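Try this one yourself first.
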C-alpha cells in the first residue's frame, strides 16, 4: 500500500500564477524619425507610482504611469483620441494623483491612474504644493475677462478655484517660477504696472500680493526657499542685488549689492544660499551667503581672467554642493562645502579643454547622479560621492558614443532611478537603473512602429527558449528568453553586421544547446550555447571555410551524442562526440562511399539509423556509439539497390518505418526493437500510402490513403496481429493529447478516442469563407490542444480544446477587434507557451503566456542525477497532476532495500558541492521518508485538491537514497528532477 500525500500540501506550497499573455520583447522597435517615447517630466503621486508623458504611436503623446516594472507601465487614458497628442505638461502630485495640462492652451486634468477628470481650467503651467492644495497658473475654461492667473486645486472640480486675478481685466499676470515654504508660496508674475515682480501667497485672495523691494527694481530671479525665507536676485539702486523675504513687504530686506547683473542660480545650502554672480572683476563665479552682508562672499575664482561663464546649477547631496564650472579643463564637475578651501574640482571626466558638460543632477543612493560626456562613450549617466575615486559612469546605454540625443529627466523613485535615453535603436524611451551597469535597462519600448523582428525557430533549452529574430541592426540572430522581458537577451551577432545567421536544427544535451547554424564565414556548422552571449560560439568547423558540414539529427546516447555531418574527403558520415572537440570522431561505415546517415532513433542503449553501404544500398543499421559496435541490422531489400525509407517514429520502445522497396507503389510498414529477430515487416499496404506516423498510448498511429475514398486511421502495437484499422474516415496531421487524438479539416476541429470520431467545433464563417484552423499543438501531457482560428468576431487568435464543445475556448486577444493577432510558431518550454503575434503596434514579435492559460498539464523529467551503486536513479510518474485527481511519483534504478527521501518544492537553486548532480529544491519544501523495494523502486501516491486556485501551479520533486557508493557527498545517490504543472 502506498502512502498518500495530503492535498493540503499543495495549498501550503502554492506559488503565484503567471500573468496572462504578454509581449515578451519588441525586438525590432524602429524609432520613427523625430519621435520620442517619453519626454520632459516625471512626477510621483503617492510614493508607489510615477507619471510621465509617453508616445506609443497609436495614441500620440499622452500620460502614462509606471510602478517601476515593465508590466506596470501603461497608458492611463487617451484624452486626445487617436494619434492627436495631448502633450501632457505641468505633471505635479496632488490629492493622491497628479494634475496635468494637455498641451499649451489645452484643458487641465487630474488622475490617479484609475479615474480621470477634467478641471475647469486650461493652459495649466508651473505651480507649487501648499498644504493639501496645489497653486499654479491657469485660465478659466469658461472664458471671461481673466487671462492666465493664480489658481489652486485639491484635485477635484469643486476644489479648483481662482486664488487672485493679479492683473484684473483681460491682461494675464502669467505666474511662474513657483517655490514654497510649508505656509507660503513664492512666485514671479507680471505686475499691474507692467514688468516682472516678486509675489507671495498663502492660498487666499487676501494673502496674495507683491513682496518685492519698495525701491524700483527689475529682472528679479526665481525665488529660492531657505528655511522659512525666500531669497531672490534683482537689479536695483546699487546694481545687482541679493534680497531676502519672509513673504511680507516689511520683511523684505537687501542682503548685498554691487554685483554686475542680478545674482542668479540661487540654491539652498543648509542655512545659507549659494548663487552665481559677478563682482565686475572676476566674472561669473560661485558665491555663498548666510543672509548678512559680512557672510556673503565669493567661494573661488575658478576661471581666472574674468571671462568665464561658470556654474549653471548647484545640487546639494550628503552635505556637499555640486556644480559644473568652467575652469582650465572646460565645463567639469566641482564641489563645495561652503568654504573657499572646500571648493574644488571633483574629476576631469573629459581630459582637455572641451569638458564633460555635467547636466541633469539628482540625488540617489546618497550620491549625485548626473549626465556627462567623457569624449569617448558619449553622454551617459554618471555617479559621484564627491571624490575622484568614486566618480564613475553607471552604464554605457548607447555604445556608439553618439551624444546628440542625451539621457535626461533623471528621477529617483524608491530603489530605482528613472531616466530618458536613446540607445540608438529604440529612440527616446524610459530606462531604469539601480546604480550599476548590470541593473540598467530599458523599462519599456513605448514608441514603436509596426516593423517585425519575425521571431521563429523556438527551441527549448532547460525550461526556457532560444529563438531567432531580427533586431533591425544585426540581422536575424539568436536570442535567449526565460519568459520575461528582462530575461530576453541576444546571444550574439553570429554573422557580424547586418547579415543574418540561421539555425536548421538543435538539441539540448549535456548542459548546452547544440545547433546547426549557418553563417557567411563558416557555412552550416556545429555551434553551442549555454544561454549567454559568452557561451555562444562555434564548437567545431568540420568543413573549414565557407563550405557546409550541415550537422543534423542530433541524438543523445548517455554520455555521447550522435549526429550526421559532411566531412572533408569522406562525404556525409555518422559522428559521435563526448562534448569535446578532441572527442568528436567519425564512425565510417564504408571506406568506399558516403554513408548518408539519417532517421537516427534511440532504442534502449543503441541508436538505430538508416545508412547507405556500397554492398547493400540504403538499409537499417544500429550503433552503440563506437566503430566496433556499429552493424547492419536488417537488409530489408537484399542486393545493392537498397530500401527507400519515407517516415519513422519511436513508439512503445520500438522503431516503426514506412518503407518502399523496388516499386513506387509497394509501401510497407516495418518495425524493430533493435535486434535482428525483432526487426520485421508488419503489413504490406498493396499500393496504399501510410502517412502521418505519430506515437500515442504506446502504439504507432498513422493514416492510410488509397487515393479513392477518405483516408483511414490505423494503429500498431508492433505485432502483425496488433496492426489494424482503428477509425474509418480521417484526414490531416495527427496531434495526440492525453486520451484523445486531434486533427483539423478546413474550419473544423476533429477528435477521436481511438474507436470513434467526432467534430469538436466548426468555425465556418457566416459568409461561407474558409479561414482554416492552424498551429494545432498539444500543450503538456493533458487532454488539451491549442490551435488558431478566426471566429468572425475576434480575428485569428489562439484557442484551446479538451475535445468537447464546452471545453473549447479562446485564450488570447493579442490584437483586439476583428483583425486578430494571428499567433504562430507556438512552442511550449517548461510551464510557458511562446508564440509570435502582431498586436497592431509592434508587428510580429515574440509573446509568452503561462501554460495554465490553456489549462495544460505537465509532467516531465529534466536535469541530472547523482549515480549510486545501481546506476543513476530515475524519477518516474504515472497519471497526470490534474485538479481533483491523483498521480503516482516513482523511483527506479536505486539501491535496493535502502532508506530514501522524497523531496517536493516550488523552486530550484544551484547547490555548492552538487556539481554534476543538478539543482537543489529550495525551501519551502516537503519531504517524506520511505524504503526502496527489493528491485530498487518506490511508488508514492500524490493527491491534488479539487481547488481551481491550484490550476497553473508548478512543482519539482526528486529522490535521495542512502548509498555508500553514491556520488553525492559519498553518502547518497539522487534521481533526476521531475517537473510537474497542475492542469485541468
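Now uncover the answer:
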Amino acid at each position: 500500500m502506498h502512502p498518500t500525500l495530503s492535498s493540503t500540501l499543495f495549498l501550503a506550497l502554492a506559488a503565484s500564477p503567471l500573468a496572462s499573455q504578454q509581449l515578451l520583447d519588441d525586438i525590432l522597435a524602429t524609432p520613427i524619425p523625430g519621435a520620442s517615447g517619453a519626454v520632459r517630466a516625471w512626477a510621483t503621486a503617492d510614493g508607489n507610482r510615477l507619471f510621465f508623458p509617453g508616445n506609443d504611436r497609436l495614441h500620440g503623446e499622452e500620460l502614462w504611469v509606471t510602478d517601476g516594472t515593465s508590466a506596470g507601465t501603461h497608458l492611463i487614458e487617451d484624452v486626445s483620441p487617436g494619434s492627436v497628442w495631448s502633450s501632457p505638461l505641468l505633471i505635479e502630485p496632488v490629492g493622491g494623483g497628479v494634475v496635468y495640462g494637455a498641451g499649451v492652451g489645452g484643458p487641465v486634468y487630474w488622475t490617479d491612474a484609475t479615474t480621470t477628470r477634467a478641471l475647469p481650467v486650461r493652459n495649466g503651467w508651473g505651480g507649487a504644493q501648499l498644504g493639501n492644495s496645489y497653486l499654479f497658473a491657469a485660465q478659466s475654461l469658461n472664458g471671461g475677462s481673466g487671462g492666465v492667473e493664480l489658481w489652486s486645486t485639491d484635485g477635484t472640480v469643486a476644489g479648483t478655484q481662482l486664488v487672485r486675478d493679479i492683473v484684473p481685466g483681460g491682461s494675464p499676470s502669467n505666474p511662474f517660477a513657483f517655490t514654497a515654504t510649508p505656509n507660503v508660496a513664492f512666485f514671479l508674475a507680471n505686475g499691474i504696472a507692467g514688468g516682472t515682480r516678486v509675489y507671495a501667497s498663502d492660498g487666499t485672495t487676501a494673502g496674495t500680493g507683491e513682496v518685492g523691494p519698495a525701491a524700483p527694481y527689475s529682472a528679479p530671479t526665481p525665488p529660492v526657499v531657505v528655511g522659512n525665507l525666500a531669497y531672490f536676485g534683482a537689479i536695483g539702486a546699487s546694481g545687482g542685488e541679493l534680497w531676502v523675504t519672509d513673504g511680507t513687504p516689511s520683511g523684505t530686506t537687501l542682503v548685498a549689492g554691487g554685483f554686475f547683473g542680478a545674482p542668479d542660480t540661487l540654491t539652498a545650502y543648509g542655512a545659507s544660499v549659494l548663487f552665481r554672480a559677478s563682482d565686475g572683476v572676476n566674472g561669473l563665479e560661485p558665491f555663498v551667503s548666510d543672509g548678512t552682508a559680512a557672510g556673503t562672499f565669493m567661494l573661488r575664482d575658478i576661471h581666472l581672467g574674468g571671462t568665464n561663464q561658470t556654474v549653471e546649477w548647484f545640487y546639494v547631496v550628503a552635505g556637499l554642493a555640486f556644480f559644473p564650472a568652467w575652469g582650465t579643463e572646460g565645463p567639469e564637475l566641482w564641489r563645495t562645502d561652503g568654504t573657499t578651501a572646500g571648493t574644488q574640482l571633483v574629476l576631469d571626466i573629459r581630459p582637455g579643454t572641451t569638458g564633460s558638460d555635467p547636466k541633469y543632477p539628482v540625488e540617489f543612493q546618497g550620491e549625485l547622479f548626473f549626465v556627462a560626456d567623457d569624449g569617448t562613450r558619449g553622454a551617459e549617466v554618471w555617479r559621484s560621492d564627491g571624490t575622484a575615486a568614486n566618480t564613475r559612469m553607471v552604464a554605457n546605454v548607447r555604445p556608439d558614443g553618439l551624444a546628440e540625443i542625451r539621457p535626461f529627466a533623471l528621477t529617483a523613485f524608491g530603489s530605482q532611478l528613472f531616466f530618458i535615453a536613446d540607445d540608438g535603436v529604440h529612440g527616446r524611451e524610459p530606462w531604469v537603473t539601480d546604480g550599476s551597469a548590470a541593473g540598467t535597462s530599458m523599462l519599456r519600448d513605448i514608441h514603436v512602429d509596426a516593423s517585425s523582428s519575425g521571431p521563429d525557430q523556438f527551441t527549448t533549452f532547460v525550461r526556457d527558449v532560444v529563438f531567432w529574430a531580427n533586431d533591425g541592426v544585426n540581422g536575424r540572430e539568436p536570442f535567449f528568453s526565460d519568459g520575461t522581458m528582462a530575461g530576453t537577451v541576444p546571444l550574439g551577432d553570429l554573422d557580424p553586421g547586418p547579415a543574418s545567421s540561421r539555425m536548421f536544427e538543435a538539441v539540448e544535451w549535456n548542459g548546452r544547446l547544440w545547433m546547426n547554424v549557418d553563417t557567411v564565414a563558416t557555412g552550416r556548422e556545429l555551434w553551442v550555447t549555454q544561454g549567454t552571449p559568452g557561451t555562444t560560439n562555434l564548437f567545431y568547423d568540420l568543413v573549414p571555410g565557407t563550405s557546409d558540414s550541415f550537422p543534423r539529427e542530433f541524438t543523445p546516447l548517455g554520455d555521447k551524442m550522435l549526429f550526421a555531418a559532411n566531412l572533408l574527403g569522406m562525404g556525409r558520415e555518422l559522428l559521435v562526440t563526448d562534448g569535446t572537440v578532441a572527442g568528436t570522431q567519425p564512425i565510417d561505415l564504408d571506406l568506399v562511399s558516403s554513408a548518408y546517415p539519417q532517421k537516427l532513433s534511440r532504442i534502449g542503449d543503441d541508436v538505430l539509423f538508416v545508412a547507405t553501404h556500397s554492398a547493400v544500398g540504403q538499409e537499417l543499421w544500429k550503433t552503440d556509439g563506437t566503430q566496433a559496435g556499429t552493424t547492419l541490422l536488417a537488409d530489408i531489400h537484399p542486393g545493392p539497390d537498397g530500401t527507400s525509407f519515407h517516415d519513422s517514429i519511436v513508439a512503445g520502445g520500438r522503431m516503426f518505418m514506412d518503407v518502399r522497396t523496388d516499386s513506387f507503389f509497394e509501401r510497407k510498414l516495418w518495425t524493430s526493437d533493435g535486434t535482428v529477430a525483432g526487426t520485421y515487416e508488419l503489413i504490406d499496404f498493396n499500393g496504399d500510402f501510410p502517412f502521418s506516423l505519430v506515437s500515442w498510448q504506446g502504439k504507432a498511429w498513422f493514416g492510410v490513403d488509397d487515393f479513392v475514398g477518405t483516408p483511414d486511421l490505423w494503429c500498431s502495437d508492433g505485432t502483425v496481429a496488433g496492426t489494424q484499422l482503428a477509425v474509418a474516415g480521417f484526414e490531416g496531421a495527427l496531434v495526440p493529447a492525453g486520451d484523445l487524438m486531434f486533427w483539423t479539416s478546413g474550419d473544423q476541429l476533429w477528435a477521436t478516442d481511438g474507436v470513434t470520431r467526432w467534430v469538436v467545433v466548426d468555425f465556418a464563417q457566416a459568409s461561407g469563407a474558409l479561414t482554416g484552423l492552424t498551429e494545432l499543438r498539444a500543450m503538456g501531457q493533458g487532454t488539451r490542444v491549442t490551435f488558431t482560428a478566426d471566429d468572425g468576431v475576434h480575428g485569428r487568435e489562439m484557442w484551446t480544446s479538451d475535445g468537447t464543445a464546452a471545453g473549447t475556448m479562446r485564450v488570447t486577444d493579442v490584437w483586439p477587434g476583428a483583425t486578430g493577432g494571428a499567433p504562430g510558431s507556438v512552442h511550449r518550454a517548461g510551464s510557458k507557451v511562446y508564440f509570435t503575434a502582431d498586436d497592431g503596434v509592434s508587428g510580429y514579435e515574440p509573446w509568452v503566456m503561462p501554460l495554465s492559460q490553456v489549462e495544460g498539464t505537465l509532467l516531465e523529467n529534466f536535469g541530472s542525477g547523482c549515480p549510486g551503486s545501481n546506476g543513476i536513479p530515475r524519477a518516474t510518474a504515472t497519471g497526470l497532476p490534474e485538479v481533483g485527481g491523483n498521480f503516482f511519483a516513482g523511483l527506479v534504478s536505486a539501491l535496493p532495500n535502502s532508506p530514501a527521501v522524497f523531496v517536493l518544492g516550488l523552486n530550484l537553486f544551484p547547490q555548492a558541492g552538487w556539481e554534476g548532480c543538478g539543482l537543489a529544491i529550495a525551501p519551502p519544501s516537503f519531504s517524506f521518508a520511505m524504503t526502496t523495494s527489493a528491485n530498487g523502486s518506490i511508488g508514492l501516491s500524490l493527491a491534488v485538491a479539487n481547488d481551481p486556485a491550484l490550476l497553473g501551479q508548478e512543482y519539482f520533486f526528486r529522490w535521495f537514497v542512502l548509498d555508500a557508493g553514491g556520488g553525492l557527498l559519498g553518502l547518497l545517490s539522487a534521481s533526476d528532477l521531475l517537473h510537474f504543472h497542475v492542469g485541468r
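Discussion: Confidence is low (pLDDT under 50) at residues 1-19, 29-40. The two ends are 27 Å apart (CA to CA).
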